[in-house]
Amino acid sequence: MRYPALIEDCGEEYEVSFPDLPGCAARGSSIEDALENAHDALNNLLDEMEAQGDPVPEPSRLEDVEVPRGRAITSVLVVREEPGKPSVRLNLKIDLEVANIIESEARRRGMSRKDYITWMMKTLARMGA
After folding, report:
1. What's the pLDDT score for residue 7?
2. How far, in whole angstroms, is CA 67 from its chain's centroid?
3. Do 80 and 91 touch, CB atoms closer than 8 A?
């Protein structure tokens, strides 16, 4: 599930807000930072709404959202962490250079390759990439 998000350049920062969830917004020094912070704000708000028994609104379709002048539209992915969620094995054949990058970055961050790839894919998905 993805919620439409509006990006605004506020000078030294970027702000991301959610038309479907008034008051839910986040800022960052770059668009990527703002989107990552918006992902956290969105998921925290939805967790809080569910915990309080409030209905969670369905996200609007991007094409139905009015985009004010000077703003851009994207969408932010809702990611629910579920303990004990089943996993699947994927057998992938990838370029050696890419495998070396994964290995190097995972080691640099103190992560396993699996955890690094999972983190990387969720980060890219949150950014709408």
Report:
1. 97
2. 20
3. no
pLDDT score recorded for residue 84 = 65
Query: From the CB of residue 41, how many other CB atoms can be counted at a distance below 10 Å?
Result: 20
72 and 7 Cβ atoms separated by less than 8 Å: yes
Residue 20 DSSP label = T
Q: Which of 23, 20, 29, 60 is nearest to 41 (CA)?
A: 23
**Residue 14 contacts residue 31 (beta carbons within 8 Å):** yes
User: Taking a C-beta distance cutoff of 8 angstroms, is the pair 41, 27 a contact?
Assistant: no
Rounded to an integer, what distance in angstroms lies between the CA atom of residue 63 and that of residue 69? 15
Q: How far is CA 109 from CA 30, 33, 119, in A?
A: 21, 18, 11
pLDDT along the chain (129 residues), means of 10: 94 96 94 89 90 93 95 87 68 88 85 81 74
- Measure the CA–CA gap between 65 and 80, rounded to whole angstroms: 24
- Location of structure tokens 């998905």: 125
CA distances for 1 relative to 24, 28, 29, 56, 106, angstroms = 17, 23, 26, 12, 28
Q: What's the DSSP call for residue 85? A: -
